[in-house]
Design goal:
Blueprint: H1 3-10, H2 16-39, E1 45-47, E2 55-57, H3 59-86, H4 92-101
Length: about 100
C-alpha cells in the first residue's frame, strides 16, 4: 500500500477542518521519509585512512539528524491531532469528577 494512502486512512475519521490542516503535514512527512531513505544510502562517518581513531561525521549524517528531528516533530503533531480527535467525546469519569468537585 502506498504511504500516502496509509496515512490518509489513519486520518480519515477526523474533522474536515482538521483534515485540511493535516494534509500538507502528511505531504511533508512523506517527503522527509523519502529524503531520509536516500541519506541512509550514504556513509555517516568518515574514517581517516592513516589513523582509524580519527573519525568525523559526514554532511549526510548531519542532514539526516536535522531531517529526523523535523520528521519526529511532524509525527508528534499528527499524533496529537489523532489523540485529541479520539478523546473529543466527553469522558464519563471526567464528567462524574466534575460533578463531585462542586459538592
Amino acid at each position: 500500500m502506498e504511504r500516502r494512502k496509509i496515512l490518509e486512512d489513519i486520518f480519515k475519521d477526523i474533522d474536515q477542518n482538521l483534515k485540511k490542516l493535516v494534509e500538507p503535514l502528511i505531504d511533508e512527512v512523506i517527503f522527509l521519509e523519502k529524503q531520509m531513505s536516500e541519506l541512509k544510502k550514504l556513509p555517516f562517518i568518515r574514517v581517516h585512512p592513516k589513523d582509524p581513531s580519527k573519525q568525523e561525521t559526514t554532511k549526510a549524517a548531519k542532514q539526516y539528524k536535522d531531517l529526523s528531528q523535523s520528521y519526529m516533530n511532524a509525527i508528534r503533531i499528527l499524533t496529537s491531532v489523532l489523540c485529541k480527535e479520539e478523546t473529543s467525546e466527553e469522558d464519563p469519569v471526567k464528567k462524574w469528577l466534575e460533578i463531585r468537585k462542586d459538592v
